[in-house]
Design a protein that fits this description.
Leucine-rich repeat, LRR (right-handed beta-alpha superhelix); 16-stranded parallel beta sheet; 9-stranded mixed beta sheet
Length: 777
């Protein structure tokens, strides 16, 4: 008895049509011929299954099989979109058990026709014996209570394997009642066989089990951490299962460490372990992808094929160390995501390698970019040749030139450009994805396919860099990237070198729109060490606000009425030209900020800033003598201040007045970095503990004697107060940093274990920066 497989298709809200599936026995796969689909849906143009766009199948040379074929998706309904239409929103997940993928076929003479209602409506040209009964009748007793089968009119003689229509029958059971409320993610996780620790908010469960339950929920956000040594099959399963959920915002932390041996990670089996992650970008449900602690991305993946198409992604964060080998891969990803408006790259755990022009251009080609965060990265914002025209030429003709790099592991990568006439590398206004890249095709990542990915240290691997645009229309629309024409709402660049000239141009262009401008801990890379930030703004005369609310000096300077009027967060640890300093002084005399960060180069901005309106203040490498405007504004009227957070980093000189400041204001977060033991002890004795929830101490001179001050004041602690201790490189001999040196309660000079958390300085700074940034919906 043979088994016949069928694929369900549906156009909009129309009937579900099940078409017989063909088998390629030589290669062992199943498919539907496009011509068969067009015979039922003449205007069919695109196909989608479980949120993933399907393309016609291709051979190894990226040529369509002839006749064109759509891959078989067992248990799924393939949605059809006609020419000129757009894909409808995804409907709730359907129980695929209602759509059998295989039906046993048998001789018509042995069929029991009472088990299905058959309404034969074949063409009039059929022979008399064909009119009495078809040559093949699919019989499926399990369908008798669910569907009425009706043959389609106008088709050729009905033979085994031909098409038929499936419509709901009169005996279709009513749908199950909707639950009163959608389960929360906590409820979903607790239903999965796992071990859960609510104290540390950690749960372990099998990936497949988790997503089997999660697919039935309405959760839109998922933050997932792989806390084991995962393999490629884990990632393939994860991405495949994710396509059947309603998740639109996805964060994945792979928990890899920079201490891992990069060479061994590169050459060990499973070198392309990250390859399945690239198919996340073909999931049209996903609007946001955040990847954390992912290392050696370039060496552990291959580029998407040139038919990868355009992703619907709006937010992409790659929060990890970025090596030179990673950058072309990230450039390809960005070039495939033209709708990105929120981009964050890098990590504070380790400064990334210097920015290559290929990634620089990919960033600059994002025409919709509004939020740009770059963590510990060098010279990313530099223009090509110092002007904008060179970049326009580059985007029209793809990424120019070859970039050759020899990695430490002995691999040699040659990044070649794509011809502007190669149609497969263009960006269309519709979503096209190669079926071989979809995570549903898990065979691409297992079995013999993995052998194709293996290389050795002497192999030269050619990776095609997809151009930001290769079609005439797209190049016209994207000739100017946001860093050449458009405006940013947020610009955050921490650590490393920066091109001050290019940065000045970006800030000046974004003056009427920018809300967050954070440039802490930077150095200039384009000029001499004495270079300063210059802001260029077309100005008109505007009267500054009166001298009040803690503004000791409020000068009247020419100022554009719209320039920086939306600014809420400002942190400038760079030198300013005289004109720029005057401009920002005038701005701060008119503008109430939420956060202000300064260093010794920008400390003069304290003279006119409205300090008592601030919620957050960061002071870096300044002398206490230069902080007189702060003392004048705060001391004596601390009850009027709105401060919630203060950060003091390497304040030098005799610390005399700062303890009075943190006594006058009731903070919720206090950060003390490299203050030195005498100053640190003064601050810990003075801080108001009535509202304090987080106390961060990152100082190598912190010891048990210093902690004894906190133990003596333990009775004043809030129940939720956490003390975070930091270390620069390693914990060395300071046992004050080891949890094992503490008990469950205060003892001597030691705080209890539950009260103290220890992290690296980089991790503490990363958490601080995120606490400062505004929350976006």
């Amino acid at each position: 008895m043979a088994t016949q497989r069928y694929q369900a298709f549906q156009h909009g809200d129309g009937p579900i049509v099940r078409l017989s599936v063909h088998e390629n026995k030589a290669l062992g796969y199943f498919y539907n011929q496009l011509v068969d689909i067009l015979s039922v849906f003449p205007k069919a143009d695109r196909f989608r299954a479980n949120g993933i766009i399907l393309l016609c199948m291709e051979d190894d040379n990226e040529n369509n099989f002839d006749p064109k074929r759509i891959p078989f998706r067992p248990g799924s309904i393939i949605e059809i979109v006609a020419q000129g239409e757009e894909f409808p929103p995804m409907s709730p997940s359907m129980d695929v058990s209602e759509f059998p993928v295989a039906i046993e076929s048998q001789d018509p003479d042995d069929a029991d026709h009472d088990e299905c209602t058959l309404n034969y409506r074949g063409p009039q040209s059929h022979s008399s014996q064909d009119k009495t009964k078809p040559k093949f009748i699919p019989t499926a007793p399990t369908l008798s209570n669910f569907f009425v089968l009706a043959f389609l009119p106008g088709l050729p003689d009905w033979t085994a394997g031909d098409d038929f229509l499936v419509r709901p029958g009169p005996s279709l059971p009513p749908p199950p009642p909707q639950a009163a409320a959608a389960p929360s993610l906590d409820d979903v996780v607790l239903k999965v066989p796992n071990t859960t620790d609510k104290v540390i908010s950690k749960s372990s469960a099998h990936v497949r089990s988790l997503f089997r339950v999660l697919s039935g929920s309405t959760n839109r956000q998922l933050d997932l951490t792989f806390d084991w040594e995962f393999d490629r099959e884990d990632l393939a399963s994860l991405v495949h299962q994710l396509a059947s959920t309603n998740v639109s915002e996805f964060k994945l932390d792979l928990r890899e460490h920079l201490e891992d041996d990069e060479h061994l990670m590169t050459i060990r089996p499973g070198k392309v372990i990250y390859q399945p992650l690239l198919s996340l970008f073909s999931n049209t449900r996903l609007q946001s992808i955040v990847l954390a602690n992912v290392y050696n991305l370039g060496e552990r993946t291959f580029d998407p094929t040139t038919t990868f198409g355009s992703s619907a992604l709006r937010t992409f964060h790659f929060l990890g160390f970025i090596s030179e080998n990673d950058q072309p891969r990230l450039a390809n990803i960005l070039s495939s995501c033209p709708y990105i408006s929120d981009l964050a790259l890098g990590t504070h755990l380790k400064e990334s390698d210097g920015m290559q022009s290929v990634l620089n251009r990919a960033i600059r080609s994002l025409t919709r970019l509004e939020y740009l965060h770059l963590y510990s990265m060098d010279t990313i914002l530099a223009t090509d040749g110092g002007d904008n025209s060179s970049f326009k030429n580059v985007t029209k003709n793809a990424f120019k030139g070859d970039i050759n790099d020899n990695s430490n592991s002995g691999y040699k990568y040659t990044y070649k450009t794509t011809s502007g006439h190669n149609k497969k590398a263009t960006f269309a206004n519709k979503y096209n994805f190669a079926s071989k890249n979809l995570l549903s095709q898990t065979s691409n990542f297992t079995g013999s396919a993995s052998n194709k990915f293996k290389t050795n240290a002497t192999t030269t691997t050619t990776i095609t860099t997809i151009a930001a645009s290769n079609s005439t229309t797209a190049s016209n629309n994207r000739s100017n990237g946001p860093l050449d024409a458009q405006q940013l709402t947020e610009l955050v660049h921490t650590g490393g070198d920066i091109d001050l000239q290019a940065t000045s141009d970006i800030i000046s262009r974004s003056a009427n729109k920018i809300k967050v401008l954070l440039l802490p801990r930077l150095s200039d890379s384009s000029s001499g060490k004495d270079a300063s930030l210059e802001l260029h703004i077309t100005t008109t005369t505007a009267q500054s606000r009166s001298r009040d609310k803690g503004r000791p000096n409020s000068p009247v300077l020419p100022l554009n009425n719209l320039a920086f009027s939306k600014l809420t967060h400002l942190d400038l640890s760079v030198k300013l030209t005289k004109s720029s300093h005057g401009l920002l002084t005038a701005i701060l005399s008119k503008q109430d900020l939420v956060h202000l960060g300064i260093n010794c180069d920008s400390v003069g901005l304290l003279d006119t800033a409205c300090l008592i309106e601030l919620k957050s203040l960061s002071l870096l490498t300044v002398s206490e003598e230069s902080l007189k405007p702060l003392f004048s504004a705060v001391l004596g009227r601390g009850d009027q201040c709105k401060f919630e957070s203060m950060r003091f980093d390497r304040i030098w000189g005799t610390i005399k007045w700062l303890p009075d400041v943190i006594t006058a204001v009731a903070l919720t977060r206090l950060y003390l970095v490299d203050m030195g033991k005498p100053a640190l002890m003064k601050m810990l004795n003075a801080v108001d503990l009535s509202r304090l929830e987080l106390l961060v101490i990152d100082d190598k001179e912190y010891d048990w004697a210093t902690e004894g001050i906190l133990v003596a004041r333990a009775a004043q602690f809030r129940s939720n107060l956490v003390v975070q201790l930091g270390f620069k490189s390693h914990k060395s001999e300071r046992n004050v940093l080891y949890p094992g040196s503490r008990g469950d309660a205060e003892a001597g000079n030691a705080l209890p274990r539950y009260r103290v958390k220890v992290d690296s300085s980089a991790q503490l700074y990363d958490e601080y920066l995120r606490s400062v940034l505004p929350t976006r919906a």
